[in-house]
Task: structure prediction
Amino acid sequence: MSREEAGRKGGEKVKEKYGTEHFAEIGKKGGNSSNNSDNSNNSN
Result:
């Protein structure tokens, strides 16, 4: 089993257990984290 297949399989199990709303919440948290970062690597 490839790494990609294993990730997909795990994701499907999480979806079965917690539902799609769980992934939406994770996405919001990740987006908030990256929006609030220092971004000191940007040389604009």
Summary: The chain has two helices and no strands. The radius of gyration is 15 Å. The chain has a mean pLDDT of 82. Residues 3 and 28 are 25 Å apart (CA to CA).
